[in-house]
Amino acid sequence: MRVLLTGGGTGGHIYPALAMARELERRSRDHEMCYIGTEEGLEADIVPKAGIPFECVNVQGFRRQLSWDNVRTVKKFVQATRRSKRLIQSFAPDVVIGTGGYVCGPVVYAAHKLGIPTLIHEQNVIPGLTNKFLARYADVVAVSFEGSEQYFKRAACLVHTGNPRASEVAAASKVNGRTSLGIAKDDTKPIVLVVGGSRGARPINEAVVHMAPRILEQDAFYVVYVTGNVHYEDVSRQLGDVSSRQLIVKPYIYNMPEVLAASSLVVNRAGASTLAEITALGLPSILIPSPYVTNNHQEANARWLEKQGAARVILERELSADTLWREIREVMEHQSRREAMRQAAAKLGQPQAAGRIVEELDKLVNKRGVH
Ligand SMILES: CC(=O)N[C@H]1[C@@H](OP(=O)(O)OP(=O)(O)OC[C@H]2O[C@@H](n3ccc(=O)[nH]c3=O)[C@H](O)[C@@H]2O)O[C@H](CO)[C@@H](O)[C@@H]1O
Protein backbone atom coordinates (compact mmCIF):
# COMPACT_ATOMS: atom_id res chain seq x y z
CA MET A 1 0.00 0.00 0.00
CA ARG A 2 1.21 3.54 -0.72
CA VAL A 3 0.46 5.70 2.31
CA LEU A 4 0.71 9.47 2.54
CA LEU A 5 0.79 10.84 6.08
CA THR A 6 0.28 14.39 7.25
CA GLY A 7 -0.03 16.05 10.64
CA GLY A 8 2.06 18.39 12.67
CA GLY A 9 3.11 21.44 14.51
CA THR A 10 3.55 19.57 17.78
CA GLY A 11 4.48 16.01 18.76
CA GLY A 12 0.92 15.20 19.83
CA HIS A 13 -0.13 15.24 16.17
CA ILE A 14 3.03 13.73 14.65
CA TYR A 15 3.60 10.61 16.78
CA PRO A 16 0.13 9.09 16.17
CA ALA A 17 0.86 9.27 12.41
CA LEU A 18 4.25 7.61 12.90
CA ALA A 19 2.68 4.95 15.15
CA MET A 20 0.28 4.05 12.31
CA ALA A 21 3.19 3.86 9.88
CA ARG A 22 5.04 1.49 12.25
CA GLU A 23 1.98 -0.71 12.75
CA LEU A 24 1.55 -1.01 8.97
CA GLU A 25 5.23 -1.89 8.58
CA ARG A 26 5.01 -4.44 11.41
CA ARG A 27 2.21 -6.22 9.54
CA SER A 28 3.84 -6.16 6.10
CA ARG A 29 7.04 -4.79 4.58
CA ASP A 30 5.13 -4.04 1.41
CA HIS A 31 4.31 -0.38 2.09
CA GLU A 32 5.66 2.89 0.69
CA MET A 33 5.33 5.93 2.95
CA CYS A 34 5.62 9.65 2.43
CA TYR A 35 4.90 12.50 4.88
CA ILE A 36 3.83 16.09 4.21
CA GLY A 37 4.44 18.67 6.94
CA THR A 38 5.66 22.24 7.33
CA GLU A 39 9.24 23.42 7.58
CA GLU A 40 8.61 25.15 10.94
CA GLY A 41 6.77 22.29 12.69
CA LEU A 42 8.50 19.67 14.87
CA GLU A 43 7.72 17.16 12.08
CA ALA A 44 10.59 18.59 9.97
CA ASP A 45 12.98 17.26 12.64
CA ILE A 46 11.15 14.11 13.80
CA VAL A 47 9.91 12.56 10.53
CA PRO A 48 13.23 12.35 8.61
CA LYS A 49 14.80 10.82 11.76
CA ALA A 50 12.06 8.15 11.60
CA GLY A 51 13.27 7.27 8.08
CA ILE A 52 10.17 8.46 6.20
CA PRO A 53 10.59 10.72 3.11
CA PHE A 54 9.41 14.22 4.00
CA GLU A 55 7.91 17.01 1.85
CA CYS A 56 6.85 20.52 2.91
CA VAL A 57 3.96 22.84 2.22
CA ASN A 58 3.63 26.41 3.50
CA VAL A 59 0.51 27.00 5.64
CA GLN A 60 -0.46 28.92 8.74
CA GLY A 61 -3.25 28.53 11.30
CA PHE A 62 -6.47 30.52 11.46
CA ARG A 63 -6.91 33.14 14.17
CA ARG A 64 -10.18 32.60 15.98
CA GLN A 65 -10.90 36.33 16.17
CA LEU A 66 -11.35 38.57 13.09
CA SER A 67 -7.96 39.49 11.72
CA TRP A 68 -6.42 40.57 8.41
CA ASP A 69 -3.97 37.78 8.93
CA ASN A 70 -6.77 35.36 8.06
CA VAL A 71 -6.77 36.70 4.50
CA ARG A 72 -3.12 35.62 4.21
CA THR A 73 -4.07 32.27 5.78
CA VAL A 74 -6.70 31.66 3.06
CA LYS A 75 -4.22 32.61 0.32
CA LYS A 76 -1.63 30.22 1.75
CA PHE A 77 -4.27 27.49 2.04
CA VAL A 78 -5.11 27.80 -1.67
CA GLN A 79 -1.41 27.70 -2.66
CA ALA A 80 -0.73 24.78 -0.30
CA THR A 81 -3.70 22.86 -1.73
CA ARG A 82 -2.26 23.31 -5.22
CA ARG A 83 1.18 22.10 -4.10
CA SER A 84 -0.39 19.19 -2.18
CA LYS A 85 -2.24 18.11 -5.33
CA ARG A 86 1.07 18.01 -7.24
CA LEU A 87 2.79 16.07 -4.44
CA ILE A 88 -0.14 13.63 -4.20
CA GLN A 89 -0.24 13.08 -7.96
CA SER A 90 3.47 12.38 -8.02
CA PHE A 91 3.45 9.95 -5.04
CA ALA A 92 0.11 8.37 -6.07
CA PRO A 93 -1.00 7.15 -2.62
CA ASP A 94 -3.71 4.54 -2.04
CA VAL A 95 -4.73 6.40 1.09
CA VAL A 96 -4.05 9.74 2.82
CA ILE A 97 -3.98 9.92 6.64
CA GLY A 98 -4.22 13.19 8.58
CA THR A 99 -3.60 13.43 12.32
CA GLY A 100 -4.40 17.09 13.01
CA GLY A 101 -2.56 20.38 13.08
CA TYR A 102 -3.19 22.92 10.31
CA VAL A 103 -0.91 21.32 7.74
CA CYS A 104 -3.52 18.55 7.35
CA GLY A 105 -6.07 21.02 5.97
CA PRO A 106 -4.76 21.49 2.41
CA VAL A 107 -3.30 17.96 2.16
CA VAL A 108 -6.44 16.00 3.11
CA TYR A 109 -8.67 18.44 1.21
CA ALA A 110 -6.53 18.04 -1.93
CA ALA A 111 -6.65 14.24 -1.60
CA HIS A 112 -10.43 14.36 -1.31
CA LYS A 113 -10.65 16.53 -4.46
CA LEU A 114 -8.46 14.00 -6.30
CA GLY A 115 -10.71 11.12 -5.21
CA ILE A 116 -8.10 9.45 -2.96
CA PRO A 117 -9.48 7.68 0.18
CA THR A 118 -8.80 9.69 3.35
CA LEU A 119 -8.80 9.01 7.09
CA ILE A 120 -8.33 11.61 9.82
CA HIS A 121 -7.48 10.89 13.44
CA GLU A 122 -8.45 13.10 16.39
CA GLN A 123 -6.45 12.72 19.62
CA ASN A 124 -8.49 15.06 21.86
CA VAL A 125 -12.08 14.85 23.10
CA ILE A 126 -12.69 18.35 21.72
CA PRO A 127 -11.33 18.38 18.17
CA GLY A 128 -9.06 21.04 16.69
CA LEU A 129 -10.27 23.48 13.99
CA THR A 130 -8.57 21.61 11.13
CA ASN A 131 -10.14 18.24 11.88
CA LYS A 132 -13.55 19.87 12.34
CA PHE A 133 -13.17 21.44 8.90
CA LEU A 134 -11.94 18.18 7.33
CA ALA A 135 -14.61 15.92 8.85
CA ARG A 136 -17.04 16.61 6.00
CA TYR A 137 -14.44 15.60 3.39
CA ALA A 138 -12.69 12.61 5.01
CA ASP A 139 -13.99 9.11 4.30
CA VAL A 140 -13.27 7.98 7.87
CA VAL A 141 -12.95 10.00 11.09
CA ALA A 142 -11.18 7.98 13.80
CA VAL A 143 -11.56 9.33 17.35
CA SER A 144 -9.75 8.54 20.59
CA PHE A 145 -12.56 9.20 23.07
CA GLU A 146 -16.26 8.57 23.49
CA GLY A 147 -17.77 12.05 23.48
CA SER A 148 -16.06 13.35 20.33
CA GLU A 149 -18.92 12.25 18.07
CA GLN A 150 -21.00 15.36 18.91
CA TYR A 151 -18.35 17.50 17.15
CA PHE A 152 -18.31 15.34 14.02
CA LYS A 153 -21.98 15.19 13.10
CA ARG A 154 -21.14 15.67 9.39
CA ALA A 155 -18.68 12.77 9.27
CA ALA A 156 -19.50 10.09 6.68
CA CYS A 157 -18.07 7.34 8.90
CA LEU A 158 -16.92 7.73 12.51
CA VAL A 159 -15.00 5.00 14.36
CA HIS A 160 -13.62 4.77 17.91
CA THR A 161 -10.05 3.53 17.77
CA GLY A 162 -8.09 5.17 20.61
CA ASN A 163 -4.71 6.77 19.94
CA PRO A 164 -2.25 4.56 17.99
CA ARG A 165 0.68 5.93 19.99
CA ALA A 166 -0.67 3.88 22.93
CA SER A 167 0.25 0.64 21.16
CA GLU A 168 3.75 1.84 20.44
CA VAL A 169 4.58 2.66 24.05
CA ALA A 170 2.91 -0.52 25.35
CA ALA A 171 5.41 -2.56 23.30
CA ALA A 172 8.51 -0.52 24.29
CA SER A 173 11.56 -1.94 26.10
CA LYS A 174 12.16 -0.72 29.65
CA VAL A 175 15.77 -1.95 29.63
CA ASN A 176 16.58 0.06 26.48
CA GLY A 177 15.00 3.09 28.12
CA ARG A 178 17.31 2.89 31.14
CA THR A 179 20.47 2.21 29.17
CA SER A 180 19.71 5.03 26.70
CA LEU A 181 19.80 7.39 29.70
CA GLY A 182 23.21 6.08 30.73
CA ILE A 183 21.86 4.22 33.80
CA ALA A 184 23.71 0.99 34.57
CA LYS A 185 21.80 -2.29 34.06
CA ASP A 186 22.16 -3.36 37.73
CA ASP A 187 21.03 0.05 39.06
CA THR A 188 17.37 -0.27 40.15
CA LYS A 189 16.80 3.28 41.39
CA PRO A 190 13.39 4.47 40.04
CA ILE A 191 13.00 7.27 37.48
CA VAL A 192 10.78 10.32 37.73
CA LEU A 193 10.37 11.76 34.23
CA VAL A 194 9.61 15.50 33.95
CA VAL A 195 8.50 16.83 30.54
CA GLY A 196 6.76 20.01 29.35
CA GLY A 197 4.87 18.60 26.35
CA SER A 198 6.64 18.22 23.02
CA ARG A 199 7.96 21.81 22.92
CA GLY A 200 8.91 22.25 26.58
CA ALA A 201 7.16 24.61 29.01
CA ARG A 202 8.82 27.64 30.59
CA PRO A 203 6.81 27.51 33.89
CA ILE A 204 7.71 23.84 34.40
CA ASN A 205 11.34 24.66 33.61
CA GLU A 206 11.37 27.44 36.21
CA ALA A 207 9.94 25.10 38.86
CA VAL A 208 12.50 22.38 38.11
CA VAL A 209 15.45 24.80 38.11
CA HIS A 210 14.42 25.98 41.60
CA MET A 211 13.83 22.39 42.69
CA ALA A 212 17.27 21.21 41.51
CA PRO A 213 19.09 21.52 44.90
CA ARG A 214 16.43 19.28 46.51
CA ILE A 215 16.69 16.73 43.71
CA LEU A 216 20.45 16.57 44.20
CA GLU A 217 20.21 16.20 47.99
CA GLN A 218 18.26 12.94 47.85
CA ASP A 219 19.33 9.56 46.56
CA ALA A 220 16.00 7.70 46.32
CA PHE A 221 15.27 8.33 42.62
CA TYR A 222 16.57 9.84 39.40
CA VAL A 223 14.85 12.84 37.87
CA VAL A 224 15.04 12.77 34.08
CA TYR A 225 14.17 16.27 33.01
CA VAL A 226 13.35 17.19 29.39
CA THR A 227 13.59 20.96 28.81
CA GLY A 228 12.29 21.17 25.21
CA ASN A 229 14.81 21.93 22.43
CA VAL A 230 14.38 25.71 22.43
CA HIS A 231 14.81 26.07 26.21
CA TYR A 232 17.80 23.76 26.65
CA GLU A 233 20.65 26.27 26.46
CA ASP A 234 18.96 28.67 28.82
CA VAL A 235 18.11 25.97 31.36
CA SER A 236 21.60 24.43 31.18
CA ARG A 237 23.13 27.82 31.90
CA GLN A 238 20.89 28.26 34.94
CA LEU A 239 21.52 24.76 36.26
CA GLY A 240 25.28 24.77 35.79
CA ASP A 241 27.06 21.43 35.89
CA VAL A 242 24.51 19.27 37.74
CA SER A 243 23.61 16.75 35.05
CA SER A 244 24.80 13.13 35.37
CA ARG A 245 24.04 12.76 39.11
CA GLN A 246 20.44 12.26 40.26
CA LEU A 247 19.34 14.84 37.70
CA ILE A 248 19.62 13.87 34.04
CA VAL A 249 18.84 16.83 31.75
CA LYS A 250 17.90 16.37 28.06
CA PRO A 251 16.72 18.85 25.41
CA TYR A 252 14.40 16.29 23.79
CA ILE A 253 13.92 12.52 23.94
CA TYR A 254 13.55 10.74 20.59
CA ASN A 255 12.98 7.28 22.12
CA MET A 256 10.21 8.46 24.44
CA PRO A 257 8.26 5.13 24.42
CA GLU A 258 11.30 3.34 25.94
CA VAL A 259 12.00 6.11 28.46
CA LEU A 260 8.34 6.15 29.52
CA ALA A 261 8.40 2.38 29.92
CA ALA A 262 11.41 2.78 32.25
CA SER A 263 9.77 5.49 34.41
CA SER A 264 7.87 5.13 37.70
CA LEU A 265 6.23 8.57 37.71
CA VAL A 266 5.66 11.15 34.97
CA VAL A 267 5.28 14.89 35.43
CA ASN A 268 3.97 16.51 32.24
CA ARG A 269 1.51 18.79 30.48
CA ALA A 270 -1.81 17.04 29.71
CA GLY A 271 -1.73 16.74 25.91
CA ALA A 272 -3.87 13.95 24.50
CA SER A 273 -1.04 11.78 23.16
CA THR A 274 0.76 11.97 26.50
CA LEU A 275 -2.41 10.74 28.19
CA ALA A 276 -2.74 7.86 25.73
CA GLU A 277 0.87 6.90 26.52
CA ILE A 278 0.71 7.00 30.31
CA THR A 279 -2.56 5.07 30.44
CA ALA A 280 -1.27 2.44 28.00
CA LEU A 281 1.67 1.83 30.37
CA GLY A 282 -0.31 2.28 33.60
CA LEU A 283 1.97 5.12 34.72
CA PRO A 284 1.18 7.36 37.72
CA SER A 285 1.36 11.02 36.77
CA ILE A 286 1.38 14.58 38.02
CA LEU A 287 -0.24 16.72 35.32
CA ILE A 288 0.22 20.47 34.86
CA PRO A 289 -2.28 21.32 32.09
CA SER A 290 -1.34 24.09 29.68
CA PRO A 291 -3.82 26.96 30.13
CA TYR A 292 -2.91 28.31 26.66
CA VAL A 293 -4.89 25.78 24.59
CA THR A 294 -8.31 25.94 22.92
CA ASN A 295 -11.24 25.56 25.34
CA ASN A 296 -8.78 24.78 28.15
CA HIS A 297 -8.96 21.18 26.87
CA GLN A 298 -5.79 20.07 28.70
CA GLU A 299 -7.39 20.72 32.09
CA ALA A 300 -10.38 18.61 31.00
CA ASN A 301 -7.92 15.86 29.97
CA ALA A 302 -6.08 16.06 33.29
CA ARG A 303 -9.25 16.14 35.43
CA TRP A 304 -10.48 13.03 33.64
CA LEU A 305 -7.42 11.10 34.84
CA GLU A 306 -7.54 12.69 38.29
CA LYS A 307 -11.17 11.66 38.74
CA GLN A 308 -10.25 8.03 38.15
CA GLY A 309 -7.43 8.25 40.71
CA ALA A 310 -4.71 7.88 38.07
CA ALA A 311 -3.17 11.36 38.31
CA ARG A 312 -2.65 14.39 40.49
CA VAL A 313 -3.23 17.83 38.97
CA ILE A 314 -1.33 21.04 39.63
CA LEU A 315 -2.76 24.09 37.83
CA GLU A 316 -0.13 26.36 36.35
CA ARG A 317 -1.10 29.22 38.68
CA GLU A 318 -0.38 26.94 41.68
CA LEU A 319 2.89 25.65 40.27
CA SER A 320 6.13 26.32 42.16
CA ALA A 321 9.22 24.35 43.12
CA ASP A 322 7.56 23.72 46.52
CA THR A 323 4.22 22.38 45.23
CA LEU A 324 5.84 20.22 42.58
CA TRP A 325 8.46 18.78 44.93
CA ARG A 326 5.81 18.04 47.58
CA GLU A 327 3.65 16.13 45.08
CA ILE A 328 6.62 14.19 43.68
CA ARG A 329 7.80 13.21 47.18
CA GLU A 330 4.30 12.14 48.21
CA VAL A 331 3.93 9.79 45.29
CA MET A 332 7.49 8.45 45.41
CA GLU A 333 7.51 7.89 49.19
CA HIS A 334 4.24 5.95 49.26
CA GLN A 335 4.50 2.75 47.30
CA SER A 336 0.80 1.89 47.94
CA ARG A 337 -0.43 5.26 46.57
CA ARG A 338 1.76 4.80 43.52
CA GLU A 339 0.39 1.31 42.98
CA ALA A 340 -3.23 2.55 43.23
CA MET A 341 -2.49 5.27 40.65
CA ARG A 342 -0.77 2.72 38.42
CA GLN A 343 -3.79 0.41 38.46
CA ALA A 344 -6.24 3.27 37.84
CA ALA A 345 -4.18 4.51 34.87
CA ALA A 346 -3.87 1.01 33.37
CA LYS A 347 -7.67 0.60 33.40
CA LEU A 348 -7.95 3.56 31.00
CA GLY A 349 -5.26 2.40 28.57
CA GLN A 350 -6.03 1.38 24.99
CA PRO A 351 -2.97 -0.52 23.79
CA GLN A 352 -4.94 -2.06 20.89
CA ALA A 353 -5.49 1.31 19.20
CA ALA A 354 -2.93 1.03 16.36
CA GLY A 355 -4.33 -2.36 15.31
CA ARG A 356 -7.87 -1.00 15.27
CA ILE A 357 -7.02 1.98 13.13
CA VAL A 358 -4.99 -0.08 10.65
CA GLU A 359 -7.99 -2.42 10.25
CA GLU A 360 -10.10 0.63 9.37
CA LEU A 361 -7.46 1.66 6.83
CA ASP A 362 -7.52 -1.80 5.25
CA LYS A 363 -11.31 -1.70 5.01
CA LEU A 364 -11.22 1.74 3.44
CA VAL A 365 -8.59 0.87 0.87
CA ASN A 366 -10.10 -2.52 -0.01
CA LYS A 367 -13.48 -0.91 -0.53
CA ARG A 368 -11.82 1.14 -3.27
CA GLY A 369 -10.36 -2.02 -4.79
CA VAL A 370 -6.66 -1.54 -3.91
CA HIS A 371 -4.72 -4.58 -2.60
C1 LIG B 1 0.23 23.45 23.37
C2 LIG B 1 -0.59 22.56 22.51
O1 LIG B 1 -1.21 22.97 21.55
N1 LIG B 1 -0.63 21.28 22.90
C3 LIG B 1 -1.39 20.30 22.17
C4 LIG B 1 -0.42 19.39 21.46
O2 LIG B 1 0.54 19.11 22.48
P1 LIG B 1 1.82 18.22 22.52
O3 LIG B 1 2.39 17.97 21.20
O4 LIG B 1 2.75 18.75 23.55
O5 LIG B 1 1.04 17.01 23.07
P2 LIG B 1 1.05 15.60 23.59
O6 LIG B 1 1.41 15.63 25.00
O7 LIG B 1 -0.28 15.05 23.22
O8 LIG B 1 2.14 14.80 22.74
C5 LIG B 1 3.52 14.98 22.86
C6 LIG B 1 4.16 13.85 22.13
O9 LIG B 1 5.53 14.14 21.99
C7 LIG B 1 6.30 13.08 22.53
N2 LIG B 1 7.56 13.62 23.07
C8 LIG B 1 7.55 14.69 23.91
C9 LIG B 1 8.74 15.19 24.41
C10 LIG B 1 9.96 14.55 24.04
O10 LIG B 1 11.05 14.92 24.46
N3 LIG B 1 9.90 13.48 23.20
C11 LIG B 1 8.73 13.01 22.70
O11 LIG B 1 8.75 12.03 21.94
C12 LIG B 1 5.41 12.44 23.58
O12 LIG B 1 5.81 11.15 23.88
C13 LIG B 1 4.05 12.55 22.89
O13 LIG B 1 3.86 11.50 21.98
O14 LIG B 1 -1.08 18.31 20.82
C14 LIG B 1 -1.95 17.52 21.67
C15 LIG B 1 -2.57 16.41 20.83
O15 LIG B 1 -3.32 16.89 19.79
C16 LIG B 1 -2.97 18.39 22.39
O16 LIG B 1 -3.74 17.62 23.28
C17 LIG B 1 -2.22 19.47 23.14
O17 LIG B 1 -3.09 20.30 23.87
From TrEMBL:
<dbReference type="GO" id="GO:0051991">
    <property type="term" value="F:UDP-N-acetyl-D-glucosamine:N-acetylmuramoyl-L-alanyl-D-glutamyl-meso-2,6-diaminopimelyl-D-alanyl-D-alanine-diphosphoundecaprenol 4-beta-N-acetylglucosaminlytransferase activity"/>
</dbReference>
<dbReference type="Pfam" id="PF03033">
    <property type="entry name" value="Glyco_transf_28"/>
</dbReference>
<comment type="pathway">
    <text>Cell wall biogenesis; peptidoglycan biosynthesis.</text>
</comment>
<protein>
    <recommendedName>
        <fullName>UDP-N-acetylglucosamine--N-acetylmuramyl-(pentapeptide) pyrophosphoryl-undecaprenol N-acetylglucosamine transferase</fullName>
        <ecNumber>2.4.1.227</ecNumber>
    </recommendedName>
</protein>
<feature type="binding site">
    <location>
        <begin position="10"/>
        <end position="12"/>
    </location>
    <ligand>
        <name>UDP-N-acetyl-alpha-D-glucosamine</name>
    </ligand>
</feature>
<comment type="function">
    <text>Cell wall formation. Catalyzes the transfer of a GlcNAc subunit on undecaprenyl-pyrophosphoryl-MurNAc-pentapeptide (lipid intermediate I) to form undecaprenyl-pyrophosphoryl-MurNAc-(pentapeptide)GlcNAc (lipid intermediate II).</text>
</comment>
<dbReference type="GO" id="GO:0005975">
    <property type="term" value="P:carbohydrate metabolic process"/>
</dbReference>
<keyword id="KW-1003">Cell membrane</keyword>
<keyword id="KW-0472">Membrane</keyword>
<dbReference type="GO" id="GO:0009252">
    <property type="term" value="P:peptidoglycan biosynthetic process"/>
</dbReference>
<keyword id="KW-0808">Transferase</keyword>
<dbReference type="Pfam" id="PF04101">
    <property type="entry name" value="Glyco_tran_28_C"/>
</dbReference>
<feature type="domain" description="Glycosyl transferase family 28 C-terminal">
    <location>
        <begin position="191"/>
        <end position="354"/>
    </location>
</feature>
<keyword id="KW-0132">Cell division</keyword>
<dbReference type="InterPro" id="IPR006009">
    <property type="entry name" value="GlcNAc_MurG"/>
</dbReference>
<dbReference type="GO" id="GO:0071555">
    <property type="term" value="P:cell wall organization"/>
</dbReference>
<keyword id="KW-0573">Peptidoglycan synthesis</keyword>
<feature type="binding site">
    <location>
        <position position="253"/>
    </location>
    <ligand>
        <name>UDP-N-acetyl-alpha-D-glucosamine</name>
    </ligand>
</feature>
<feature type="binding site">
    <location>
        <position position="198"/>
    </location>
    <ligand>
        <name>UDP-N-acetyl-alpha-D-glucosamine</name>
    </ligand>
</feature>
<dbReference type="GO" id="GO:0005886">
    <property type="term" value="C:plasma membrane"/>
</dbReference>
<feature type="binding site">
    <location>
        <position position="298"/>
    </location>
    <ligand>
        <name>UDP-N-acetyl-alpha-D-glucosamine</name>
    </ligand>
</feature>
<keyword id="KW-0328">Glycosyltransferase</keyword>
<keyword id="KW-0131">Cell cycle</keyword>
<keyword id="KW-0133">Cell shape</keyword>
<dbReference type="GO" id="GO:0051301">
    <property type="term" value="P:cell division"/>
</dbReference>
<dbReference type="GO" id="GO:0050511">
    <property type="term" value="F:undecaprenyldiphospho-muramoylpentapeptide beta-N-acetylglucosaminyltransferase activity"/>
</dbReference>
<keyword id="KW-0961">Cell wall biogenesis/degradation</keyword>
<feature type="binding site">
    <location>
        <position position="124"/>
    </location>
    <ligand>
        <name>UDP-N-acetyl-alpha-D-glucosamine</name>
    </ligand>
</feature>
<dbReference type="GO" id="GO:0008360">
    <property type="term" value="P:regulation of cell shape"/>
</dbReference>
<dbReference type="InterPro" id="IPR004276">
    <property type="entry name" value="GlycoTrans_28_N"/>
</dbReference>
<comment type="similarity">
    <text>Belongs to the glycosyltransferase 28 family. MurG subfamily.</text>
</comment>
<feature type="domain" description="Glycosyltransferase family 28 N-terminal">
    <location>
        <begin position="3"/>
        <end position="142"/>
    </location>
</feature>
<dbReference type="InterPro" id="IPR007235">
    <property type="entry name" value="Glyco_trans_28_C"/>
</dbReference>
